[in-house]
Amino acid sequence: MRKTFARVSILFTIALSAVSAERLFAREAHFPSNEDLRHTRTLSQPRLSPDAQSVLIQIADTTADGGRTHLWLVDIKQNAARQLTYSPASDKRGEHNGEWTPDGNTILFLAKRGEHTQLYRLPMEGGEARPFDLKIEPGVDASREPDALPPDGTKAPQKPEQVEIDVERFFISPDGKWIAIIAHDPQTPGEKKQETDKADAQWVDHDKHGARLYLLDPDTGKLTKTELAPNVESVAWNKQSDRILAIAEAPNNADDLGPAKSAWMLKVSDPDHPEAIKQILPSVAQATWSEDGKHIYFLAQAEQDTPPGYNDLYELAPADGSLKNHSRTYRGSIGHEGPISAGGKVLQSVQNGTQVSFARFDGGSSEVFRFDTQVVTNMNTNNRQNGWVWIGTSSTKPQTLFFSEKLGHTAHALNTPSALPDKWADAPSQLVQWQNEGQTVEGLLYLPPQAKDRKVPLIVDVHGGPTGAWEDSYSPLIAFLLGHGWAVLRPNPRGSTGYGASFAAANKNDLGGADYRDIISGVDAVIAHYPIDPNKLALMGYSYGGEMAAFVEGKTDRFKAIVSGAPVIDQYSEYGTESSSWYDRWFYGKPWDNAAEAWRQSPLSGAGHAKTPFLLLQGDSDTTDPLGQSVEMYRALRQMGVPVDLVRYPREDHGPLAGGIFGNPNSEPWHGFDARQRMVKLFEKAFSQ
Prior knowledge:
By secondary structure, the chain is α+β, with helices and mostly antiparallel strands. The protein has a domain at 430-688: Alpha/Beta hydrolase fold, catalytic domain (Rossmann fold). It is 17% helix and 33% strand. The protein has 13 helices and 39 strands. The strands form nine sheets. An eight-stranded mixed β-sheet has the order 32-33-35-34-36-37-38-39, with helices on both faces. α12 (654-662) packs across α13. Residues 3-26 have low confidence and may be disordered.
């Protein structure tokens, strides 16, 4: 399954803060070294204060410092930032998910400073952050089942012991009187003893544990369990603070059979009787209320036949059950951030080509806002909507926090901590277009300074997904590669988002077909119009990009070296071992029903034609594209006599390894560095021949 990479740029681009002048210009601008990419920070989750005077923001430490996140406070008027939270050595993740209480007097956040992830409150007038004491009597205890092991000879029922919960998410009501909390069923003392005694057989898809919804009274600390069934994923409060809209996923991998989400209405006064909202589609993602509480806006699978996760923006009127699609005719793609109700209309993240912005939707019409940067994410406002904050970035502008009193008005960049050890040289993008088989295809081209007076090698970087896209945002990996004198092309072939539903669906049952030809035609186009050395070409990709890299291995010998990260190699074996198969099933159906199609779309089918030196980068803990896929390709190429290397990274899952390679802060201090080092050695050897 590759849908983890639907939003490629989030996983493949670095989120860099604005930097202080004295450090930014510490020395002459230079392209970053491999070590420099271990010293970048990221910004996320800005939250505007109720009085619109401050911004709470989450900032990640550098990889070299452990990659933990902390909360910072930015004073808008003074344009100055200070760190609010600090982590003990035992907390490997740091403080995260910070939110203001509606009165602005307290900040709530999550942190694991002991055995459990707890909900903390930090008073703004001063003092230490203190956790809520949240304990429940578990409704599920596998150790008390009649056939539980080891056998328990106790006949008399025992009173359940209260157990502390781990908070996964929380949502504050607009009036501040309630906090909705999502927590997974905790491990009971009996279950912990089972684990110690190794009575720990796992009955697949029969786990009774799940993520449940609770209501917390922050004044009294009382925790009330609701009767919503697991697994609850998200919650949206109406502005009146008397109703909750909850989204739940059916338990035990039901989504492997198809969309399996449900929406529920819960009255705070009656938490024991949730009501199903049957008009909301089972593919629902994020949802929110209109300001008057009479409408619900939500994202769900597009009406047109598109890959799973390609969404439309819908509006539901619960009173009469009427449903409206706001984005049916939208020419770009709906983004992955949830809708925001504002002024009787709805704002939604949108992608148009390589640009990401926000648009105001009203019925069948839409208005895209213009911003100072090519990519805008993390839009946020407060309950009064008397200010807006977001994170903006472009190919030459590291990720920056912006504030505006009104959308569409002048925006101000806000200072946040330094993100770069020094001033890095700019790596400006060029939007390039080419024609192939009746399609207009786009990509981003980056040229090094050496291209001014000679032809340079080209690295083609293929995005993941395949339902993803390269966005025109800042990327430290691009600057790193340009520093070696290599140009980079990032194509958006058929199957990419940002170009409408038909384009996103154009590679159905054709993986490695027309999308491969789109990429190759793009290579020809840039060779024809830019100073590219046609004899010095290399290709790389991660996730579906890694799968495409493997397709390329068996289809052409034009490239001198290929790097494949976490690929799919054999659609048969991957389908049966990945975490979920629903996404892949849309492309080619069940492999046993469509054997020829599945094999045709397996890179392994072309291994007999392989010639190009090949490097595989794979996380050991990857459940999206499991380790066995890379092992299959390694074995095939090795037996074919092709120069091939497989590098495995312990503890790494799919997304985190990608982030580390591409320059995002990561808790693994050296994996990204190691992968980049191996890539450079492979390319240098290839281009020197």
